[in-house]
């Protein structure tokens, strides 16, 4: 149902040991947000850093209205995203990474409006431009096939930028058992199975730096995690 209430956007960015990268990334991020026509807050969900990342965020808060900090003791990307989502109160909870964000994606979310409960920036849908290397693109395709056959998911890409309505976060996030790499995937799949409407928009993906995570380490953990999700959802 359409509403005259102006939506608000709560961006959540999990970070771990990003003290050196953070200042330049925040400058680029807030440049991207400058033309977004609704209120936007940015919550940096620092988790388990040992390099002064939290202090770097605190030092930046006076320069950037709307910048907030959440600190968590343990390095865990998915847990940081979950706690960040639950700590915000915007109409939409948005997941960005510190090296992957887009003002155009936020404007797409606003254009879609009440027509969707979740909006995914897909690297695989028509019109997407995935400029990553062959191995990374193949890994994304393979992961999607696993989700399709193991979890009966019909979306094309669960990793990357996404926007989730506040009511979906509140209803679905408490059911999610995954952290680390799979919190957002499980959140999307559970919402999909619950009948929430998911829209996908094409993403432009250009790696700004070498990835910090190893595919070789992630694959076994991901396979175990997907099977655990399947088992839990079937209970």
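^ Assign residues to that structure.
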């Amino acid at each position: 149902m359409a509403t005259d209430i102006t939506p608000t956007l709560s961006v959540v960015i999990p970070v771990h040991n990003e003290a050196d990268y953070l200042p330049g990334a925040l400058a680029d991020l807030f440049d991207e947000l400058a033309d977004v026509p609704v209120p936007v807050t940015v919550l940096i969900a620092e988790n388990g850093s040992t390099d002064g990342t939290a202090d770097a965020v605190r030092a930046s808060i006076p320069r950037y209205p709307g910048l907030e900090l959440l600190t968590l003791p343990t390095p865990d990307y998915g847990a940081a995203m979950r706690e960040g989502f639950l700590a915000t109160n915007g109409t939409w909870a948005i997941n960005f990474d510190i090296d992957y964000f887009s003002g155009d994606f936020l404007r797409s979310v606003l254009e879609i409006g009440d027509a969707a409960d979740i909006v995914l920036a897909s690297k695989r849908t028509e019109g997407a431009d995935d400029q990553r290397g062959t191995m990374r693109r193949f890994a994304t395709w393979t992961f999607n096939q696993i989700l399709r056959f193991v979890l009966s998911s019909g979306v094309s890409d669960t990793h990357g930028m996404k926007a989730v309505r506040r009511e979906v976060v509140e209803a679905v996030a408490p059911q999610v058992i995954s952290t680390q790499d799979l919190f957002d995937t499980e959140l999307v799949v559970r919402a999909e199975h619950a009948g929430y409407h998911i829209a996908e928009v094409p993403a432009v993906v250009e790696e700004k730096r070498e990835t910090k995570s190893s595919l070789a380490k992630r694959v076994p953990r991901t396979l175990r995690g997907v099977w655990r999700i399947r088992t839990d959802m079937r209970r």
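The mean pLDDT is 91.
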